[in-house]
C-alpha cells in the first residue's frame, strides 16, 4: 500500500497533509505537525514557572541497574558459557523487536496491521524490553512526533544530549508533557484487548519476561550459574536494550546527516540503526512517519523490517504502508542533501 503523499514536504505542507489524514481517520491524529501549535507551545513554555525536580528513586534504580550491568558485561566476555552469550544476544534482538516492530511501528504509528496472534507475540516480546506498557510508551512517542523539540516532547533534545538520552527519566515531567499528552486520543490502543491485558498484568509479565525466565532458562537447560545468568542475560541485556533505544532519542538527533529534511533535528545514523535493530533512519522516519520501514536501509541493517515482511509472508501482517519512491526522491531533491544519501546501504 503506497501512501500518496506530496513530495513537497515543508513543515507547513506536512501539517496540511496530517490534518487531512486526521479528518479522514481520527486515529491518525498523532501524525499531525502544526507549526502554529509548535510556536504557541514554545511561547507558553516560557511563561510556565518550571524548576527541574530530580526523582531520586529513579536515580537510585538506574545506578543499581548500571552497577549490575557492569558485572554482567564482564561475565558476558569472560565467564558466561557460549550458550548464555548467544541466548543473551537473542533476548536483546527479540526484546528489541517488541519495541521496534510492536510499540513503535505497529501501535504508535499504525504503519501496518497485525492479526491477533501476531499482536500477542509482539506484546510478549515487548515485556522482555521492560520500557513501560505499550499504551504509555506510544503516548510518549506520539507526543514526541507531534511536538518534537518542545517542552511537550518527553525527551526534548533542546534540553541537551544527556536529557534526551536518559535524563528525562530521572526528573519530573515538564508540565507541558502532561498537559499535551492528556489531550491525545489513545482510545485506539486502549480498546485493543491485547494491550488491555498487558496493562492489567504488566508488573508480573515484565518481572517474569525480563528477569525470571532469562535467569532460569540458562540454569535449567545448559547448567549456567544463576549468578551469571541473572547479571548477563537479564541485567546487562536489559540495560543494553535501554541504551540502544535511548540512542534513537539522543544520538539519532545529533550525529548524522539529513538527506530527507534538513529543517528538523532527527538525522540518519547507521550505528543506531544497527544497535536498535533498524530504527536509526530517523530523518526518514520523521519525514515519513507513516512508512512501516522507517528507513530505506537494506535488509542487512533493518532487521525489524525483515521480521515484519516475514510475518506478512506468513499472513500475520497486512496493510504495510510505504511512501512511493518518486515521492522520496522528490523530497530529497527539494528538502534534503542528495550528496549525503548513502545508496550503498539501501
UniProtKB/TrEMBL annotation:
Please report the record's description of how this protein sits within the membrane.
Multi-pass membrane protein
* Cross-referenced InterPro entries: Acyl-CoA_DS
Q: Which residues form a coiled coil?
A: none
What are the record keywords, sorted?
A: Fatty acid biosynthesis, Fatty acid metabolism, Lipid biosynthesis, Lipid metabolism, Membrane, Oxidoreductase, Transmembrane, Transmembrane helix
Question: Which cofactor does this sequence's record say it needs?
Answer: Fe(2+)
Quote the CDD domains the UniProt record gives: Delta9-FADS-like
The keyword Lipid metabolism appears for this protein? yes
Task: List the GO molecular function terms.
Answer: iron ion binding; stearoyl-CoA 9-desaturase activity
* Transmembrane stretches, start-end: 55-78, 84-103, 202-222
**Which family does the entry's similarity section mention?**
Belongs to the fatty acid desaturase type 1 family.
This protein's name: Fatty acid desaturase domain-containing protein
Species, as recorded:
Caenorhabditis nigoni
Give the lineage.
Eukaryota, Metazoa, Ecdysozoa, Nematoda, Chromadorea
Amino acid at each position: 500500500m503506497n501512501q500518496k503523499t506530496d513530495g513537497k514536504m515543508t513543515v507547513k505542507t506536512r501539517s496540511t497533509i496530517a490534518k487531512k489524514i486526521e479528518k479522514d481517520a481520527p486515529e491518525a491524529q498523532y501524525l499531525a505537525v502544526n507549526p502554529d501549535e509548535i510556536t504557541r507551545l514554545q511561547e507558553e513554555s516560557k511563561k510556565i514557572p518550571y524548576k527541574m525536580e530530580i526523582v531520586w528513586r529513579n536515580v537510585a534504580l538506574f545506578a543499581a541497574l548500571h552497577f549490575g550491568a557492569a558485572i554482567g558485561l564482564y561475565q558476558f566476555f569472560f565467564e558466561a558459557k557460549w550458550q548464555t552469550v548467544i541466548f543473551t544476544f537473542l533476548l536483546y534482538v527479540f526484546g528489541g523487536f517488541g519495541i521496534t516492530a510492536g510499540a513503535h511501528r505497529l501501535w504508535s504509528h499504525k504503519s501496518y496491521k497485525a492479526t491477533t496472534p501476531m499482536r500477542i507475540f509482539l506484546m510478549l516480546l515487548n515485556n522482555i524490553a521492560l520500557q513501560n506498557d505499550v499504551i504509555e510508551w506510544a503516548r510518549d512517542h506520539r507526543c514526541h512526533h507531534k511536538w518534537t523539540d518542545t517542552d511537550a516532547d518527553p525527551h526534548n533534545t533542546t534540553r541537551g544530549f544527556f536529557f534526551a538520552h536518559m535524563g528525562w527519566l530521572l526528573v519530573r515531567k515538564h508540565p507541558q508533557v502532561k498537559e499535551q499528552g492528556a489531550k491525545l486520543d489513545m482510545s485506539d490502543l486502549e480498546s485493543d484487548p491485547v494491550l488491555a491485558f498487558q496493562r492489567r498484568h504488566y508488573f508480573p509479565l515484565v518481572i517474569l519476561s525480563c528477569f525470571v525466565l532469562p535467569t532460569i532458562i540458562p540454569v535449567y537447560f545448559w547448567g549456567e550459574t544463576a549468578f551469571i545468568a541473572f547479571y548477563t542475560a537479564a541485567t546487562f541485556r536489559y540495560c543494553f536494550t535501554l541504551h540502544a533505544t535511548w540512542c534513537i532519542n539522543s544520538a539519532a538527533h545529533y550525529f548524522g546527516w539529513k538527506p530527507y529534511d534538513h529543517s528538523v533535528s532527527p538525522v540518519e545514523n547507521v550505528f543506531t540503526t544497527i544497535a536498535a535493530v533498524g530504527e536509526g533512519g530517523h530523518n526518514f522516519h520523521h519525514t515519513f512517519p507513516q512508512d512501516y520501514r522507517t528507513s530505506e536501509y537494506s535488509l542487512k541493517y533493518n532487521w525489524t523490517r525483515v521480521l515484519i515482511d516475514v510475518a506478512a509472508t506468513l499472513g500475520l501482517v497486512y496493510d504495510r504502508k510505504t511512501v512511493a519512491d518518486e515521492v522520496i526522491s522528490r523530497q530529497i531533491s527539494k528538502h534534503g542533501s542528495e550528496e549525503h544519501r548513502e545508496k550503498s546501504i539501501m
